[in-house]
């Protein structure tokens, strides 16, 4: 059998091409017709005339040399076919297509559904159509406005078979179980009365049904037919599966449950879909943060249906898009702390939506600082749904934008901690010149003129950035002339002044400067990072710890450097202060080497080497 897409020859028993994987199509068999006798008689007469033409001289014109035939363009190759097996054929199959009104569902929900009636007064409808306050109502073909009285539904079924109490039975097809040995046809409920023979591909069991992924040719309301009877349905509306009736006992539907009982059990089940419907049904005047909280509650619950069984507006990506819009609006109104509380890592992992993660990272950055946003994105990058290259690169780009925003804020407010943000972001984008020059500006702001000069010298700058680079170079040179001092900025009124220092020229450590403390303290994590060995010979000293008197080891540090100012041969006590940041403490045994100028009102500490 020849593949229509790549023209590869395959065995007649193959269903899929061995080269490109396309579905191999075959025309449906046509009934054999008897050839009339006069066709054979005409063929015999034509054979006699042709023989006489060539055998009897004078009956044909003199021969001449054949002229070269004009070259003909190659015939265009056939377009690749989809999974539909045959061309559309007229269908004599009689359908009673019903239209069902969907009331009191949610904003953006479909207003109606189409499904074929069968067995006189039965119809199949998706389970999600019963999540509203009222059951679907039959509006056509008789416009009765009747709701189903009874349903056949089990907890694992994605469809509900509904029985309507009609005054008279309609002329409808019968329902039969799917037979995997018979030809399967699909017929749309709208348009011409035509049908297609199809092959479904892999089937999956879902309760009393077998499902398959739809392809574009049949992604519309329709029925699946075998031997003149209905065996399944398609619904459109974004529902991405076809459904085949395949009960274990092979029997037809039975009125098992009252419709009101079904609706009550769905609303009381506490499912993800029920929470989404409740959130989308909230009135316009409900506060945006309450709506965001309601959507978030849905992602924390178990799903009743697969996303393929849901309409467009109820699929998780559509819900996540609504949440992203709400979160962005709240952030712009100054409610980033509330957004960061609602969009916790567990919820973001459940949604696995890139736009929602970006909105959450922005909220974390605005409410808690860049470090919190960086940790959030680092955790989420480990998710399988986020580990793909395109998604991971988009998260990298989002983190870089957040870092730039944080650096601009630090520069505008003359804040501190910018170099740490730059170091994190530059690992993601080492060639981003805008980020690079922001790092230089921050280094100048923090009086780290040596770092600023090194950063400037490590890159070549285009004409558009050359003026800015020269300005920063001049500022760095002016600052280096005053390198015997270091200026540390902090929040006015803080008793502990945060600063980063380099220990032994290799370990960057956060400290708090305390002019009332006498001793320099480093945490245990710094000892490990520095490779300092502690054994029985290590001195032990008494200290006043957070819980009273305590004992701690005392070690020797080769140097501590702040902003280019170094102090050598420092004795430090190894002790954890109990902060989450594992910070150390710089006391007067370090500050004694400097002239200290402290302005707590302006939040400036200047250290000049003695």
What's the shape? elongated
Ranges where pLDDT stays below 50 over 5 or more residues in a row are 26-35, 57-85
What is the spatial order of strands in the main beta sheet?
1-9-8-12-13-14-11-10
**How many extended strands?**
25
Beta-strand content estimate: 15-25%
Residues in helix, %: 25-40%
Assign the CATH class of the domain at 97-267: Mainly Beta
The fold-level CATH name of the domain at 97-267 is Thrombin, subunit H
Radius of gyration: 39 Å
Overall mean pLDDT: 83
Q: What profile does the largest beta sheet have?
A: 8 strands, antiparallel
Task: Output the number of helix runs.
Answer: 16
Query: How far is the first residue's CA from the last residue's CA?
Result: 92 Å
Structural class: alpha+beta
Oligomer: single chain
The name of the CATH architecture of the domain at 97-267 is Beta Barrel
Walk me through this protein's architecture.
The protein is α+β, with helices and mostly antiparallel strands and 610 residues long. Among the domains are: 1-28; 97-267, Beta Barrel (Thrombin, subunit H), CATH 2.40.10; 486-609, Acid Proteases (Cathepsin D, subunit A, domain 1). 32% of the residues lie in helices and 22% in strands. The strands form four sheets. Strands 1-9-8-12-13-14-11-10 form an eight-stranded antiparallel β-sheet, with no helix packed on it. Strands 5-2-3-4-7-6-15 form a seven-stranded antiparallel β-sheet. A hairpin with a 6-residue loop joins strand 6 and strand 7. The chain is elongated and about 115 Å long. Mean pLDDT is 83; it is low at 26-35 and 57-85.
């Amino acid at each position: 059998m020849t593949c229509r897409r790549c023209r590869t020859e395959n065995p007649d028993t193959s269903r899929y091409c061995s080269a490109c994987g396309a579905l191999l199509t075959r025309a449906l068999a046509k009934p054999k017709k008897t050839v009339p006798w006069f066709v054979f008689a005409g063929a015999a007469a034509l054979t006699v005339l042709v023989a006489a033409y060539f055998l009897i001289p004078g009956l044909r014109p003199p021969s001449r040399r054949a002229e070269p035939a004009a070259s003909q363009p190659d015939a265009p190759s056939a377009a690749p076919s989809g999974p539909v097996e045959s061309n559309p054929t007229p269908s004599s199959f009689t359908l009673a297509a019903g239209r069902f009104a969907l009331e009191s569902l949610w904003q953006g929900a479909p207003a109606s559904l189409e499904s074929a009636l069968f067995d006189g007064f039965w119809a199949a409808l998706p389970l999600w159509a019963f999540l509203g306050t009222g059951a679907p109502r039959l509006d056509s073909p008789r416009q009765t406005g009747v709701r189903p009285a009874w349903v056949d539904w089990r907890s694992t079924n994605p469809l509900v078979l509904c029985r309507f109490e009609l005054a008279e039975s309609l002329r409808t097809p019968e329902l039969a179980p799917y037979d995997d040995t018979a030809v399967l046809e699909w017929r749309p409920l709208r348009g011409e009365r035509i049908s297609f023979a199809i092959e479904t591909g892999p089937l999956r069991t879902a309760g009393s049904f077998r499902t398959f992924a739809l392809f574009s040719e049949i992604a519309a309301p329709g029925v699946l037919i075998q031997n003149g009877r209905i065996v399944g349905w398609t619904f459109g509306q974004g529902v991405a599966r076809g459904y085949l009736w395949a009960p274990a006992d092979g029997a037809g539907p039975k009125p098992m449950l009252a419709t009101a009982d079904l609706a009550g059990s769905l609303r009381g089940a506490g499912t993800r879909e029920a929470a989404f419907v409740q959130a989308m049904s909230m009135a316009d005047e409900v506060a945006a943060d309450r709506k965001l909280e309601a959507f978030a509650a849905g992602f924390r619950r178990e799903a009743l249906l697969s996303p393929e069984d849901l309409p467009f507006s109820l699929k998780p990506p559509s819900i996540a898009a609504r949440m992203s819009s709400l979160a962005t609006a709240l952030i712009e109104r100054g409610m980033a702390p509330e957004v960061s509380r609602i969009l916790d890592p567990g919820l973001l992992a459940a949604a696995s939506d890139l736009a929602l993660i970006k909105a959450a990272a922005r909220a974390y950055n605005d409410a808690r600082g860049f470090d919190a946003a960086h940790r959030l994105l680092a955790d989420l990058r480990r998710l399988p749904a986020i580990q793909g290259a395109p998604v991971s690169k988009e998260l990298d780009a989002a983190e870089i934008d957040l870092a730039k925003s944080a650096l601009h804020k630090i520069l505008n407010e003359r804040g501190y901690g910018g170099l740490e943000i730059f170091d994190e972001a530059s690992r993601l984008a080492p060639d981003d010149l805008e980020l690079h020059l922001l790092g230089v500006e921050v280094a100048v702001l923090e009086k780290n003129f040596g770092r600023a000069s090194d950063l400037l010298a490590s890159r070549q700058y285009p004409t558009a950035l050359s003026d800015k680079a020269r300005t920063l170079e001049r500022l760095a040179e002016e600052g280096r002339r005053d390198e015997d001092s270091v200026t540390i900025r902090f929040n006015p009124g803080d008793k502990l002044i945060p600063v980063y220092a380099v220990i032994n020229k290799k370990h960057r450590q956060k400290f708090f400067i305390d002019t009332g403390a006498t001793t320099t303290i480093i945490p245990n994590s710094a000892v490990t990072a520095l490779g300092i060995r502690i054994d029985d010979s290590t001195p032990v000293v008494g200290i006043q710890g957070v819980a009273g008197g305590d004992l701690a080891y005392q070690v020797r540090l080769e140097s501590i450097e702040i902003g280019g100012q170094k102090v050598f041969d420092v004795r430090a006590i190894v002790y954890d202060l109990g902060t989450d940041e594992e910070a150390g403490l710089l006391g007067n045994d370090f500050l004694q080497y400097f002239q200290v100028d402290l302005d707590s009102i302006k939040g400036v500490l200047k250290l000049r080497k003695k």
